[in-house]
Amino acid sequence: EAFYQASSESEKKTYLDEDFYEKDKLSYSAFGIDAITYMPISQEFELLASLGLAQYDFETKYEDVDEVFGNLGGESKDFDSLGIRFGIGAQYNITNNLALRGMARYIKMNDDEYVKSLTEFSLGLRYMF
Predict the structure, then answer these.
(1) Would you list the DSSP string of 45-70?
(2) What confidence tens digit (pLDDT) does each residue in 108-121 have?
């Protein structure tokens, strides 16, 4: 299966004292391919395993903020990394053409200076034609 995905921007504040904190923002997009194997348990229910490769493009923003004086500056850094994707999941076949699928994936990045790994959880409705 080929895919494209994009994350929303996540924000984390780390307070260094009462009035001063660092604000980190991170978002990413990715495209890639997964090979998925199915193990039927019953007519409707299947267990899944996947192995894939994806290109991840990250956008980061770092800011130092003083609640009295405001934004004290920061920097942005964009980087990309190739990720190896390992996944497990299950699929419930509602009809011959419609299925509900849940997957959990662990992604190991080849550039571990900034992002070492990701964990993804997905729930989706599949239409097969």
Answers:
(1) EEEEEEEEEEEEEEEEEEEEEETTTE
(2) 998 767 788 999 99
